[in-house]
Amino acid sequence: MHFTLKIWRQKNSLARGSFETYNLDDVSPEMSFLEMLDALNKKLVEEDKDPVAFDSDCREGICGSCGMYINGHPHGPVPAITTCHLSMRYFRDSETIWVEPWRAKPFPVIKDLIVDRSALDKIQIAGGFVSVNTGAAPEANSLPVNKEKADEAFDSSICIGCGACVAACKNASAMLFVSAKVSQFALLPQGRVEARQRVRAMIEKMDELGFGNCSNSGACEAECPKQIKLVSIARLKREYYKSY
Amino acid sequence: MALAGLFLLLFLPVHLAINLLLLKSDPEPFNKAAGFMANFPVIKVIEILLFAALLIHISYGFYIQIKNWLARPVGYAIATKSDTSPFSKFMIWTGSSILLFLILHFFNFFFIRLGLVEGNPEDFYSVAHNLFKIPLYNYIYLTCFILLGLHLYHAFSSAFQTLGLNHRIWTPVVKTVALLYSVVLPGGFAFIAITIWLFR
Ligand code: SF4
Ligand code: FES
Prior knowledge:
The complex is a heterodimer of chains A (about 240) and B (about 200).
Chain A: E1 3-9, E2 18-24, H1 33-46, E3 69-70, E4 73-74, E5 96-100, E6 109-111, E7 114-115, H2 118-127, H3 147-157, H4 164-168, H5 175-186, H6 189-192, H7 195-208, H8 219-223, H9 230-242
Parallel strand pairs in A: 1-5
Antiparallel strand pairs in A: 1-2, 3-4, 3-5, 6-7
Chain B: H1 2-20, H2 27-39, H3 41-70, H4 91-114, H5 124-131, H6 135-162, H7 170-199
Helix pairs in contact in B: 1-3, 1-6, 1-7, 4-6, 6-7
Bound molecules: iron/sulfur cluster and FE2/S2 (inorganic) cluster.
Iron/sulfur cluster (SF4) binds near residues 224, 226 and 228 of chain A.
């Protein structure tokens, strides 16, 4: 396969960036998007040019570091997967592909496609934990948890903090992320103890860091690789109102 | 935002019901209803609440929108292709247009009642009928009601979500009601305007 790539290049957070055009041949349809970028970088290095900087770690959809905005979609046009799971067969041969970094005030570009997502960590640090000393694991049956709740808590906990929800949101809001992180605790008895402080601290931090507000557009839900749903944001709201 | 908006949503059917009296050839019932709305003490209190809701809704709306714009100082080269609620993107624009219309509307009616603008506050029936005879007024009126419909369609279900009410069974019901509400209500206002414009 052949592709024309328009990739955002920016030397550092202070530099003005711009799009560069690259032509890449011999891309196999089985390649993942990141492998395709690896191939491009190999070519650039051979030509003695600066390779495209992008983030990746696990390459199996669990670390959340490989975020990039591809042809108008965070993590590319295929729903419910990360960029590392996006394979090139989903693109048409000879297609032009635009690749941009996440765009949000709290996510400054570090270089090319890499942004600083530590704002999400700061929200997590503000309250996304259980600080009671739980000691050794208790006997499972001593703390019964309703199966439905346990499932919901699990589904929330699979958020990988990739920031696609922020990138997709027209307001650069982090509500979906925060809602998942609040839900995974709020639904379980261990998390209830600090539920009030947690939800307030996390929302306060989110606002302080300059993320936008939720206007219920649903772009986050459509683009989340882990399929966190808008019901989660509604739960976050309920938790927030309950905290007063 | 959501609470103030929902409160405003309650007012529209009342206004529409009174406007339907404009279709009668006798001006009496409409003028009586308008007079009742202007002078009945309980309605006065509701009116103050309504203005408070309006003010909160508008000022908070602008405030949030500006914050949201600031949250993405550098935009994308390729506009989003995400599958989103279609009208949520335009709330600030549909809302602002409605605000402009509201100012015009106040000049035509509310300010007359307050004595700020010349006119006969006892006979809003004729005021309305005369306005609906002006084609330009009708174009503006009808455009604004289409925009109101688009605004309401997103607003209605969005308000429930903001209040934390999202439910497997009830949310689809709310969405259907939102669709009906946003078609029937503005449609009703538009129907009255068109009927008077073309057939009276
Ligand atoms: S909610 Fe989804 S899109 Fe947002 S950070 Fe978590 S996994 Fe990524
Ligand atoms: S590299 Fe870890 S999720 Fe893609």
